[in-house]
Predict the 3D structure of the following.
Amino acid sequence: MKKHDKFFLNGLWVSPDSTQVHEIINPATDEVCAEVPLANEIDCVRAIESARAAFPAWSSTTANERSDFIHKAADELLNRADELADAITLTMGCPRHICPNLQVLGSIQAFRAYADRAKTMEEIEQRKGFQVLKEPVGVCTLITPWNYPLSILIGKVAPALAAGCTMIAKPAEQTPLQDFIVAEVFEKIGLPDGVFNLLTGIGPEVGPVLCGHPEIDMVSFTGSTRAGVQITESAAPTIKRVCLELGGKSPLVITKDADLAAAVQYGVQNVMMNTGQTCSALTRILVDESVYEEAVSMAKQVAEDNIVGDPLDPQTTMGPLSSASQKSTVVNYIRKGIAEGARLVTGGEEMPTGLTQGAYLAPTIFADVNNQMNIAQEEIFGPVICMIPFRDEGHGVELANDTVYGLSSAVFAKDRESALAIARKIKAGQCFVQGANFTTDAPFGGYKRSGNGREWGEEGISEFIEIKAVLGR
Ligand code: ADP
């Protein structure tokens, strides 16, 4: 069992002031698989002071120096890719054979892209009578969730480093292990002390300090809308910048003349990929009513083709939910869907065949869903899809936008042009047309209650930048 008993603060592995520890449960076996300390207020303040002390020197480094560190860190993360994948599979159940591609290698590649983006920090824009400069925003708290624990961490650390910010990382309670590897990597490459600090703790307990302390300039958070609200409240009295990547209830619009089989395959697998635990998952499949029943039977088949089981088995395509408590949240939504009158096409609350322990659920499809139902409006964060019919394209777009969220979306239509016309009408930060794949080169973020700001791509660094105008000749 992996036991960590120190935090990484100011370049050193430091014993916590707190004596509390947290046991991590492997969701595939329900057994304790690791232990980490839980920070108290004193630990949080130490981390903040360390990041603050490191800021003047780190923010004065050249872009080239920061780029070198980013490349070195990416090289070393690659050396440790297997350990990173092991840690993620162990703590959140992503099938081990899928984990490197889904959770590890792409993010390391994306990390490297910020080496070049660091150079944009030195570009001075000369306008009529003034210059516009870019400066790092300062000391950042980075709070990450458990569904893509490494990628989301890198999506924050990479631009923060590139911009010249210092930081405190706080991983989710369920999945802290990869963060310790990341801290070891920064220690090994000799990143200056205090630039990256790591502590573990219970969100609502450490949140008020990490998000409210006057020496914090910015909070970057990915997680639930509920936690996003609390973080914003903690940060409000000192007017910090708060960047939020929150929930979603993203639509996939399928028109009557689209390639139905390709569209349904894409949509169902998009959701089942990480056991439904992807904030941008296309969990509402909206289909033209003339091909709706056909789409429902196709979706049933694609869902049932998944092999649910042990994440260490190379045959497995879908692992457990990340925790027993997440499973119980999802089960409650499945019950709610049935009570609301939706038609359960496949899946449900029972343990999938052949499994007796672990946080498993079968891929679940609801048909005849009305967009006003709770299961169509609330983020479930599990392998559950709502299929909703629409009368015509206008109605499809109306349903797509009839949500408090706006993170992602997708369209399958007759051809690219027709799909693009629909894509332009959808209120969401991303839209995937005709089966496109996710890329960390594209800006990612939400409209409405899905959050604010953009991560990844060139836009990802903007969150970590202050703009200064220098006027005069
Ligand atoms: P879930 O409810 O699915 O666990 P959360 O949004 O609560 O998702 O968790 C995502 C991250 O947010 C975790 O790192 C968690 O510790 C953190 N978190 C939760 N509540 C707060 C809070 N009030 N302040 C700061 N961080 C929080």
Q: What stands out?
A: Residues 132 and 183 are 34 Å apart (CA to CA). The pocket of adenosine-5'-diphosphate is lined by residues 143-145, 170, 172-173, 203-204, 207, 211, 223-224, 227, 230-231 (CB under 6 Å). The chain has a mean pLDDT of 97.
